[in-house]
Amino acid sequence: MGGSSFFESVRQLDVGFRGHLMKVPAFYYDGTATTAVFPARYAGLRRLVPDPRFVPARLAPGLGAVTVSAFEYRDSDIGPYNELAISVPLCEPYAGANLPGRALLTALSRRQFHAWVEHLPVTTEIARLGGVEFYNYPKFLASIDFTEPAGRRTCRLAEDGEYILTLQSESIPALGSGRIQLFSHTWMDGQPQGSEFKINALEAGQSSRPGMATLTLGDRHPIALKLGRLLVSRRAIHVQQLNRFEGILYGPDHLTLPTLAKALRGEAFSESTVEVDAAPAPVRTRV
Known about the structure:
Blueprint: E1 11-17, E2 20-24, E3 26-41, H1 42-48, E4 63-76, E5 81-89, H2 102-110, E6 112-119, H3 125-135, E7 143-147, E8 152-159, E9 162-170, E10 176-188, E11 191-207, E12 213-217, H4 222-230, E13 238-249, H5 257-264, E14 269-273
Parallel strand pairs: 6-10
Antiparallel strand pairs: 1-2, 1-14, 3-4, 3-13, 4-5, 5-6, 7-8, 8-9, 9-12, 10-11, 11-13
């Protein structure tokens, strides 16, 4: 863990869940990510979301988008793990004009991305537990393996040995840096729930050249079959690569009474200020 100023003055709470002591907000000190945007059938996307306040962003008449984001967290408050997010970009605010392309172009220009999270597999139990208990993220344990053959970044997802998908993207020169805000939206306790993942992109690149990323789907897993029905093309229309980033995952926007009760029933609920240049205690599990 480095001493980056990105984490300065951000206070963390110790929150206990099922014998684990976790940190909220959670700090991610070193990571890599690839996000690819694929055109999808708008009617199908509308059927995924549980409430009219979630409005899929229009890409073109009859079309919306699905994003597949592959994360490698090399150093975080809960140690290294991998994650893959399958999400639907949203129009924000939901009552705004949802003209074709407007929401996505605005998100790119502002570096503020809102998305409904449909699936969020992870590779460690502590990452799954914290996400499900505190945010109601649709997390499950899976194998998420990264390789880089012949200059292409590849992520393969499988559950219990059953193949789901492979995301492949060509390497993009990391010519930029800056702050990015990812707003993840879920459904919890009968109301919309959300959280912010603030990213400090240290090495970043993006491209809208067609086919910079491709998606290969399995033929049996329910997630692969669902994506097969939704997607119009398996060639990405936009790709963003973060070769190195830091991140802060803030707590849920709506701290509902059931969520608060879960935290208070845990082993700890105390405020602390984390010194970013101090090594994390090896005897404590954090998220």
